[in-house]
Amino acid sequence: MANPKILIVDDEPNIRDLLTTTLRFQGFAVQSVSNGAGTISAVLAEEPDLIVLDVMLPDMNGFSVTKRLRAAGYTSPILFLTAKDDTQDKITGLTVGGDDYVTKPFSLDEIVARINAILRRTMAKEEEAMIIAGEISMDQDTHEVKVGDNTLDLSPTEFKLLRYMMLNPNRVLSKAQILDHVWEYDFNGDAGIVESYISYLRRKIDPIATEPLIQTKRGFGYMLRVPKA
Q1: Which residues, given as ranges, of the chain have pLDDT below 70?
Q2: Tell me, what DSSP letter sits at residue 132?
Q3: Strands 214-217 and 221-224
């Protein structure tokens, strides 16, 4: 899904601004509000794909907001932010309908990774089985991948990497973004592994493609180039 919509809810302006800037840089469409009432209005107007919701709000707490949203039929994921690292609070948050829980102070990289991980889980159910990007077709149910009429034999990691690039055609993806989506946010390995797997894909794709499809944008990352419709 292109540009998922994220709603940030926090009564601290600096946190709202920091998260808004960071998530927009990551390619999300971001809106922010400062209280529970604004959250409910924004959900009714925009139907965000995910909410980053502070538990402590000036008018009502995040748990109450979540209960009202779930009762109204809002089903998209909610990621709680809280200053309390308390097990009972975490249980409460998950019980009322939250999907994950991050304690302040938090790492921006962790927030981005948690959001991406949640969206991968929730949006996977909505995706079509077949992805097509230029000459490449991928069946997500059978894991069959073809370049034209030629079938590719890919490892699980190669499949995940190509899938991510096919979902973002003609978009430069940084090594950090690729690591996050392909190796998950808890991966602690060297970013050089991305270069290795890009090389593996090229060796398999280039000989059977009409032209090189995976491009290196030096200093930025990698892009799967496909003709624009």
Answers
A1: 1-2, 84-94, 123-128, 184-190, 228-229
A2: E
A3: antiparallel
pLDDT score recorded for residue 188: 54
- Stretch (H or E) spanning 23: helix 13-25
- Condensed to tens digits (0 to 9), the pLDDT of residues 157-207 reads 899 899 999 989 999 999 888 887 787 544 555 678 899 999 999 999 999
pLDDT value at residue 87? 61
Instruction: With beta carbons less than 8 A apart as the criterion, state whether 173 and 164 touch.
Output: yes
Measure the CA–CA gap between 103 and 111, rounded to whole angstroms: 10
DSSP SS3 for 43:
helix
Pairing, β 130-133 against β 29-33:
unpaired
Q: Residue 62, Cα to own-chain centre: how many angstroms?
A: 22
CA 78 and chain centroid, separation: 13
Residue 128's pLDDT is 62
Handedness of CA 73, 75, 167, 223 (dihedral sign): positive
User: In angstroms, rounded to a whole number, what is the distance separating the alpha carbons of residues 179 and 209?
Assistant: 25
Phi, psi of 190 (to 5 degrees): -75, 135
- Give the pairing type, strands 144-147 and 136-139: antiparallel
CA-CA distance, 134 to 28, in Å (whole number)? Answer: 24
Alpha helices in 61-216 (DSSP H): 62-71, 87-95, 108-123, 156-167, 175-183, 192-205
Which residues, 6 or more positions from 155, have their beta carbon under 8 angstroms from its beta carbon? 200
Q: Residue 136 is inside which H or E element, if any?
A: strand 136-139
| CA proximity to 106, closest of 8, 38, 173, 174 | 8
